[in-house]
Amino acid sequence: MDSDVLNRKAFSLLELSLVLAITAVLLSIALYSAKAVKQTALAERTVEELNSITLASTRYYSQNGIWPVSLSDLRTGGYISLNSGDLNPFGNAYVITGGGEAVSVSCVLPKGLISVKDFGSEIVVTNQGSNDLVSITKSQESSTWGLKYEKKYLYGQ
């Protein structure tokens, strides 16, 4: 019996290295996919927040006759939640620019997450090097508009 244990062939160093390499490749693919799913969700949340801020700004204008200057104007008036932050999920600030007959709400996102063809004419994407400036402009006169998108377009899949 002892001779069987001694004569048994073990895994070679090459076989172990191959198994480790395949495992590392599969793990990196899984982590990349998880990151893509997370960024898709954050991009969707940012678009929803831009939409909410723009609609709240329109309500503010309807009641006060002027566009809000900042998110704090919308918070104190009860147009958005008091707990809402000034930053999008990527850590960049929302900027409200009101003037004349329209308001524009914008923020910076990582490059390539959103494009005009994905969301239509309501959204403007301006390339700023490694980031994109995403903005939605709404006038008081426009009554209906909406952002149409599908998850698969966020990464061009």
How are the elements arranged and paired?
Elements: H1 2-7, H2 13-64, H3 71-76, E1 95-99, E2 102-110, H4 116-119, E3 123-128, E4 131-139, H5 151-154
Structure description:
The chain contains 5 helices and 4 strands, in the order αααββαββα. The protein has a 4-stranded antiparallel beta sheet, covered by helices on one side. The longest helix is centred in the first third of the chain and has 52 residues, at 13-64. It has one domain. The chain has 157 residues and is α+β, with helices and mostly antiparallel strands.
DSSP strand content: 15-25%
Poorly predicted ranges: 143-157
The number of domains is 1
Gross morphology: elongated
Order of helices and strands: HHHEEHEEH
Major β-sheet annotation:
4 strands, antiparallel
Structural class: alpha+beta
DSSP summary, beta strand count: 4
How many helices? The count is 5
Strand order of the largest sheet: 1-2-4-3
Radius of gyration: 25 Å
Level of helix content? 40-55%
What is the mean pLDDT?
Answer: 79
Q: Ends: how far apart?
A: 59 Å
Please give a quick description of this structure.
By secondary structure, this protein is α+β, with helices and mostly antiparallel strands. The chain has one domain. It has a four-stranded antiparallel β-sheet with strand order 1-2-4-3, with helices on one face.
Main features:
alpha+beta, 157 residues, disordered C terminus, 4 strands, 4-stranded antiparallel beta sheet, 5 helices
